[in-house]
Amino acid sequence: MMRKTSENLGRCHYHLRFQLVPGVDLDRRTKDLVTFCLAHGIEEVVLFVAAEEWNNGPLSDADMELWFETTKYAKNMLEEAGVSVSLNPWATVLHCDRGRRFPKERKFTPMVSPSGKEAKATASFACPEWKKYICDYYGKFAKLGFRILWIEDDFRYHNHAPLD
Fold first, then answer.
1. What span, in angstroms and rounded, lies between the C-alpha atoms of 164 and 157?
2. pLDDT bucket at 3, cuts 50 / 70 / 90
3. Helices (DSSP H) in the chain: which residue ranges?
4. Domain segments of the chain: what residues?
5. Which member of 8, 27, 31, 111 has the greatest number of CB atoms within 10 A?
6. pLDDT at position 1, please?
């Protein structure tokens, strides 16, 4: 918790939540983001990893590496311009399957509802393979040294459709 002082009383921290997807023109898109932040007084960018339509479930090793390199590149460029960077890995647990599946190399035990319905993309929190995956995920990205690394807030056993 921030201590109230005369310097920070009433001070807002203005940040932008944004996702730079891996791929073509990353350099140009990142430069455009930096230009936008500087032009509009944005002090910090909270980068997302595999959010919304770019989320296909838990990341494969190859996808994790691709998102890591993209995030690292963007973080370095933003910080060189004086913009702080935080990271939100998005919904690492997932709220619902929505056609997503575990990557072939992920041998997760799925979450199962009390009536026996099985999730296709949400792992059981008790699954040792998932525990290793989530620790490796946060550990890998934490090494980049973000101001804030947002953590998953959806560790619950309900509201993971198609589970009842």
1. 10
2. very low
3. 26-40, 61-80, 128-142
4. 15-142
5. 111
6. 40
Average pLDDT on 72-86 reads 98
Q: Which two tokens stand for residue 58?
A: 């838990």
Distance CA 6, CA 28 (A): 40
Length of the chain: 164
Mean pLDDT within 147-161? 76
Nearest alpha-carbon partner for 106 in 85, 127, 88: 127
CA distance 53 to 66: 16
Residue 61 in 3-state DSSP?
helix
Beta carbons within 8 Å of 60's beta carbon, 6+ residues apart: 103, 104, 105, 106
Q: Strand, coil or helix: what is 97?
A: coil
Q: Which CATH number fits domain 15-142: 2.30.30, 1.25.40, 3.30.750, 3.30.300?
A: 3.30.750
As a whole number of Å, the end-to-end CA separation of the chain is 37
